[in-house]
Specification:
By secondary structure, the protein is an alpha/beta fold. The protein is 30% helix and 20% strand.
């Protein structure tokens, strides 16, 4: 399987253009209240204008009201939704868009993990984002979790997040073989400000590990 690349927490046009240049497959745009990477709708419009059709734009929400989610998704038919809070499966499925659900590995016990995953898969989840957060945080902390906790058989594609960086991503690709690797703080010089050298190194490490 060819692991894809998602850069999350994009806030600047120059970073979007660099992400495209180094081969990102998807870019994340944060609408989680309190995040240092949070955008307003007008910023999203500008960033989408710089994004070619070949790259998937993902809008990240955390416990947002349904009307807020709908208003953002209405800005472009291209947008995929990622839910990073306590949203139940039926809420995530209500917007008529492809969607991903973050899996809070810092909060879930292994005993209940498969039931959690299957409930979202039954609702039509297009991807499960395994991250280190504990439900109250929106991600982007740079913290990882133990990859051995990921079940061997998943009911939806695996997106691996949490603590990834140019130094760790090749090992992640080789050991976990995820559908997508998802990075935010690991390619930044400051929250929301991407380091272009780190972006290129991260992508190069993924490309190299994919052939191993």
């Amino acid at each position: 399987m060819t692991t894809r690349i998602k850069f999350c927490g994009m806030t600047r046009v120059e970073d979007v253009r660099m992400a495209v240049a180094v081969g990102a497959d998807a870019l994340g745009f944060v609408f989680a209240s309190g995040s240092p990477r949070q955008l307003d709708p007008a910023q999203l419009d500008v960033l989408l204008d710089a994004l070619p059709a070949s790259v998937v734009p993902v809008t990240l929400f955390r416990n947002a009201a349904a009307d807020q989610v709908a208003a953002i998704l209405a800005r472009s038919p291209r947008l995929l939704a990622q839910f990073h809070g306590d949203e139940p499966p039926e809420f995530c499925a209500a917007f008529g868009r492809p969607w991903w659900k973050a899996v809070p590995m810092g909060a879930l016990a292994d005993a209940g993990l498969m039931a959690y995953l299957e409930s979202y898969a039954r609702a039509g989840c297009h991807g499960l984002v395994f991250d280190s957060h504990g439900g109250a945080r929106s991600g982007g902390s740079g913290r990882g979790f133990e990859w051995s906790r990921i079940p061997a058989a998943l009911p939806a594609p695996l997106i691996l997040a949490g603590g990834l960086s140019p130094e760790t991503v090749a090992d992640a690709v080789r050991r976990v073989r995820p559908h997508t690797v998802d990075v935010s703080s690991g390619i930044e010089s400051a929250p929301g400000i991407k380091d272009h050298a780190k972006m290129r190194r991260f992508a190069d490490e993924v490309f190299r590990a994919r052939t191993d």
